[in-house]
Please model this.
Amino acid sequence: MNKTLTTIFALAVASVTALSHAQEAKGDVEAGKQKIAMCIGCHGIPGYQSSFPEVHRVPMISGQSGKYIASALTAYKKGERKHPTMRGIADSLSDQDIADLSAYYDQHGKTGNELPAKPSREPSVQVAELLKKGACVSCHGDNFAKPIDPAYPKIAGQHADYLFVALKSYKVEKNANVGRSNGVMAGVAKQFTNNELKALATYIGSVDGDMKVVPQSRFK
Model:
């Protein structure tokens, strides 16, 4: 199973890379800085929680890969990710807006400190087996913070409750408001029970990452 998943991952990387090169717009950090008003109301407030589809902290995006942010926003815009609020925001953005916002958050809050190749906290035996079964490092890379393609997210240190909600969303089918269409992640997530997904999310959220929430005020 792991060998099959690895092959699927390799093909998916090739497809995503080709698509990103074909559709990539050059982002401008300074332009992105002028477009963040709709983002900071959730992502610029430490501890801010969403209540849909269940209560969880919104993801940290400062320091996230710009190409992943662009990919995620495009997926919301196309309806491949189903979330009413994010769909509404993404629909209002042009391709250039997405590129500028992605460029801004890619560098926002970065300190330049290198993370170790190996997570500082070792997983339990149970979680280690789950990580091996899901072949998580095949896409998310060393320390879950160095994806093999920048169109894949950094997940090390991301809020565990958000990771749990995100992982479960790949298992959802035929729901107009919840779910994510991604064949690779759906194949991974559906191997696990929700309790196992929660264990994975809890561990990955506990390791060192370079994403953060940088407090921002819309009145600056």
Q: What stands out?
A: The first strand starts at residue 49 and ends at 50.
